[in-house]
Amino acid sequence: MLDSPLKTPPRRRILLWAGGAVLALALASALALAAYLVRGERWASVVERTPMELVRYSERRLEGHPKLQRLFGPALDAVRRSQEREPPANLPTLGKGQRPHALVAAGYDNAGRPRASSGAAAAAAAARATTLLTNVDELRQAMASALPGQVLELAPGTYALQQTLTTGHAGLAAQPIVLRAAKPGSVEIVVTALQA
């Protein structure tokens, strides 16, 4: 018996049915998702988010699902690369964070207006009032003899304090006694005293 040319082999027919079922399932899922987002104004909350917020949210939701991470990870990385950019190297400082040199307190006249001072005079005054300390004994002596407006700078390193530090004089609101690192982030103070 001759097979008609319109008949397809059974294996191919199964593959066509399976492909059609997968396509129908994907279409039904997309329609269900659209209906879910539109209902209850959830779509508005999705539209208001930036792409990076959605990427971060998606990454959090994919944690613990390695197969889904492998599937969606490259797409999320591509969106991240297209949305994020490196900051320019020559950004101005905005007055936040650690600075290597502190600002000198401004002086005021009787009317409450700031007094004019040159930057060089202020830097010289700050340099005069700064004392560099290199060990715990120098720190203890400098704290005991510190005067208002004096700046005590600690050289980089670790300082182990075994007793309480006290100042011999109190600082003033306009002239505090300042204890700081000569290089921010380079000093560690370890306190072993019961009260410090």
Any chance you could write out the topology, listing elements then pairs?
Blueprint: H1 10-38, H2 42-47, H3 51-62, H4 66-83, H5 119-128, E1 130-133, H6 136-145, E2 151-154, E3 157-161, E4 178-181, E5 187-191
Parallel strand pairs: 1-2, 2-4, 3-5
Helix pairs in contact: 3-4
Beta strand %: 5-15%
Sheet with the most strands: spatial strand order? 1-2-4
Contiguous low-pLDDT stretches (5 residues minimum) are: none
Basic shape: elongated
Radius of gyration: 34 Å
Order of helices and strands: HHHHHEHEEEE
3D structure, described in words:
By secondary structure, the chain is α/β, with parallel strands linked by helices. Helix content is 43%, strand content 11%. It has six helices and five strands; from the N terminus they run αααααβαββββ. The protein has a three-stranded parallel beta sheet. The radius of gyration is 34 Å and the shape is elongated. The termini are far apart. The mean pLDDT is 76.
Task: Name a few traits of the molecule.
196 residues, alpha/beta, two-stranded parallel sheet, 5 strands, 3-stranded parallel β-sheet
Quick structural gist:
With 196 residues, the chain is of the alpha/beta class. The protein contains 6 helices and 5 strands, in the order αααααβαββββ.
